[in-house]
Each structure stands twice: as structure tokens, then as C-alpha cells.
Amino acid sequence: MNITEKILSKKAGYDVSPGEIIEIDVDLAMSHDGTSPPAIKTFEKIAKKVWNPEKIVIVFDHTVPPNTIGSAEFHKVARKFGKEQGIKNLYTHGEGICHQVLPEKGLVEPGQVIVGADSHTCTYGAFGAFSTGMGATDIAMVYATGKTWFMVPESYRIEINGNLPINVTSKDIILNVIGHIGSDGATYKACEFCGETIDNLDVSSRMTITNMAIEMGAKNGIMEPNKLTLDYIAERTNKSIDQLNVVRSDKDSVYEKEFSFDISEIEPQIACPNDVDNVKNISEVIGTHIDQGFIGSCTNGRLKDLKEAARVIKGKKVHPDVKLIVSPASKEIYEIAMEKGILKTFMDSGAIICNPGCGPCLGGHMGVLSEGEVSISTTNRNFKGRMGDPKSEVYLSNAGVVASSVIKGYIESPENIL
Predict the structure, then answer these.
(1) Mean pLDDT calculated for residue range 36-45
(2) Positions of E strands within 273-379
């Protein structure tokens, strides 16, 4: 059995098979300021008390601080619910983006089943958990019962080998994979990432890859945790590695499909408008005009991304016709970046520094595009209208590429800047 099947089998109490419908207990359930109120509305029709206030997490991150009366009302509803229900893990004061905050706070462990009212809940697969997004109605049922149902997914094995070239990151790995498999090529599949490259990646890089599994349509993305990941989890949970429920695939595991990628010679990858699988080598799009650069999101707003961008932009200026928006993924990352002078580097370049949050990624807050504007972004989606006006355009890249591009005013490779 593979890692996904093993986790679901343990929860079901018997060996499960792909295609089988199962009902299982959930270890952790999450919603944010955008999805909590509709979940609460449904919950209140079916129950009075949540099943376990210590296993529910509510994070305010999509519009923080509120930018409209409507979002302020959403915050009020969710905050009231959290207090009334005694929810311990209530993060309402700008702690950061949910998918960064949960691991930082030690709430994510290998072997868990985690559900969230946000499609990028698949991020936690980087820690060896089965994690997936679902709608607000399903989350309401989980809040009430602690249970949910799944159809056990078929699994894809995605093996990544090779050493990362200079200026190439895990963002380029996952964009390359999505470009080959397609935006619907892994619909309702468990995408298991493995290989020597994956084994050697740090925690941030691994999170970037599982975060974007949903962009192939996957039910979940997952990896066997490596030593760096286990050390991170142990530190955050105050547990020893021996206390963690690490699940690994059997060597004779069966997969519906197997893919193999050698990334040792790839260029930085760019997802071009208006589909995440419209992926091209940077050499094919250098010179494309931009109006905005954004560094942040649950995909690439971590300290490693900020460091990479700062390395490129240090001592240089953002092009006068371009705005650069930087939003660290969490308060913790913000504080470290401030202490290390990384934020000062961005400010000296002419960047706008925003508090942690999701806002620009979904075209909701602190960076909305107008008609005809073009953004290059470290986010995970570039659908039409994703970051603002339907007639705007979004290109996706790694943080170093965003930094080099905002200096020039067009898409540019870091190798031509440094």
C-alpha cells in the first residue's frame, strides 16, 4: 500500500482500496475568515456544539484587516463563533496565512487526516499528512461530528531527480510537473512526490510543491517526511521524532500512473495567462511587459522566498512604472525578515510591504489589478480575473524571477541581473 492508502486504512480500521467510499474520523479541521461564516451558518442548523474545540482551527487571512463592511461582518461572525464554542486555535490578529500558521503552531503531524475549507489545504502533505480541501457545507458537518467521507483516490507516483540549477527552485519543479500533467490531469488523484530531489528539499520547498497539487486537480499531494521535516515537526509539536506517526509507502505499492522528471537542466518556469498548465521556459517570455510584482502567498511567502528575492534586488530599484508588493506568509516570518534586514532591503528598493495575508493572491485586498495590467506573482493561480479585473493578466514564477522582473519592468531572469 502507498502512504495515502495506509493513512486512510488506519482511520477506517481496515485495508481500503481505491474507489471505495469510506467514512472516517478527522484529526484537524480548518476554516478561514472567508469560509468560516458560511460553514457556521450551516453548522447552526445541525448542531449546537462542535465535536472537539481543540481540533478546530480558524484563521483570519484572506482580508486582514477587513477591507469592506462585508469582510468586517465575516470577521465578527467567525470571532463570535470561536469564542462561544471555546475554540482554542483562533488566530484573528494577523498571525498569517492559514497554511503557514498551522504547521508553525505545531498543529500538523504526519499520518493525520486534515481537512480545510480552502483548496490549498493539500499543503500539509509536505509533512506526511493526508490533507485536502472541501466546501463550507462539508466543513460544517466535520465541525459537528468530527467525521467526513472520502472516495479513496487512485495514486500517481511523481519521481523527481537531479540537482536544482542556480536560480531554479521548487516552484519551478511543480510548475514543470503541472505543465506536463495538465491542470486536470490528476483530478481526484493522490499525487505522491518522491525521488532524490524531493528527499533533499527543505521544509519550505516541499510545502511549495504539495501546495500546488490542487492545480493538477489532485485530491491531495503528499510526501514521506525527510529528516529536515521531522526535525521541524518535532520542534513545533514538542514531541520526539519517535513519537510521530510517520507513514511510508511499501516498495511494492501500486500506482495508477508513474511519472519521472529530471530537473537538473530546467530553466526557471513561467505559468502564462490564463492557465496554470500554460508553462513555458523563462527564455521564451523574457521581455514581457509587467505592471506589478507580488511576492507572498501560501505558495511562496516564506523566509526562503524573501531571502531569494532580496538577494536579487539588493542595491537596486524597482522600475518606476512598476509596483512591487511583498507580503510575508506569517507574522513569524515577517519578524525574522525584519530582524535580518530583508524587509529593509525591499523598502530601500521601493517595494510596498504589507502585513501577512492572502489579499493580493485572490484579487481581494492590497494589490488588485486594473484592466490591462500585468502581474508577475509567486502565487498559485493565474485564472482570468484571479488578481483583479478580468482583462488583467497574471504570470506565475519563483520569487527571484519576480525580483529581477520588477527591476527591469518586464519578465527577466535573475541570471541577467546578478
Answers:
(1) 96
(2) 279-281, 292-296, 323-327, 352-353, 374-377
